[in-house]
Amino acid sequence: MQMDAGVLADFARGCAVLGSGGGGGPAAVTCPVAEQAIEECGPVQVVTAGELPEDAFVMPVGLIGSPAVAEERIGSRAEPARMRERVEALHGVPVAAVLISEIGGLNGCTAVAWAARLGLPLLDADAMGRAFPRMDQNVLELAGLRPGPTVLADEYGRTVVLDHVDGPWLEELARAVVATFGGHAASSEYPLTAGQAARHAVAGSVTRAVAVGRGEGPPPVLTGKVSSVRRTDEDATRVLLEGTGADAGRLVRIEARSEFVAAVEDGRALALVPDVIALVDVRTGWAVPVEEIRYGLRVRLVTLPSAPIWYSEAGLRLAGPAAFGVHGLTREATP
């Protein structure tokens, strides 16, 4: 597949849905940034890990920190090249391809922009299959791959390398660095080979995002309006959806943290993290981030299964309901 401007628009919409309400919104900044990069540097070739030599070095890329800050600090054209130079110096091998660290939200388009500017292919895969709030909530962590050396960089060329850390320590230290950088940074963590990507990454993420952006996913669970939004503290939000049209009379409660984590109707979980839960604005067709949900918004409730590994015992321990403080709800069946 070739990622050109036309495909990019569908891809960005799909990434917004796979963000499950988190990961930042790609529409405002990173989609236009990727579009400009493609216009200036040409389309990006999307390849499977199996199309590369097994020992080819793959550079994961993404942004961490506040999405609001990311909208104000969009980075520079030189940032991808600086990151590649630092990563190649650490590993002593050339970067052969780019991997999306987190396809949900704004990071998918960020990786497209970087691949375009570096003239590198983009793997049809990612490390999460959706968005999660923590850097260590990814399938490479589940596979036992080392997080480091991790490179964090800002738009001024400053870099910090974190090594000899496990996943939880990466999360703690990286957030401290990001705070020092002013709330936003580019990152490359869990470096790997194409062979490791083929065995452990979430395959087909890019093509799945494009399909979701084209509306090829399952039908909405409910169409309605937001009748109540209650933010109980800085981490928790509760949304009440009131069905309209054919769904009139239905009430669905949505629980959220950084992402939507549960959709409940009559005490029954319609969807539960690690399921993807998205509220898509009926008017714009874009999935709405948790922080932008407001009273009166007309939305479609969309749910999708995550990668199968997230429903394993280890996957649920790392990113299941209990990891987000959700208790007392169970899914009727594993997707």
Write a structural description.
- There is one protein chain.
- With 335 residues, the protein is of the alpha+beta class.
- It contains ten helices and 17 strands.
- The strands form two sheets. Strands 1, 2, 3, 4, 5, 6, 7, 8, 9 and 10 form a ten-stranded mixed β-sheet that branches. Strands 15-14-13-12-11-17-16 form a seven-stranded antiparallel β-sheet, covered by helices on one side.
- It is globular, with a radius of gyration of 19 Å.
- The mean pLDDT is 93.
- This is DUF917 domain-containing protein.
Mean pLDDT: 93
Quote the distance from N terminus to C terminus: 28 Å
The helix-and-strand class reads alpha+beta
Shape: globular
What does the radius of gyration come to?
Answer: 19 Å
User: Per DSSP, what share of the residues sits in E-state strands of 2 or more residues?
Assistant: 25-35%
Protein name: DUF917 domain-containing protein
Pfam families: S-Me-THD_C, S-Me-THD_N
Domain S-Me-THD N-terminal: 8-163
Domain S-Me-THD-like C-terminal: 168-214, 221-326
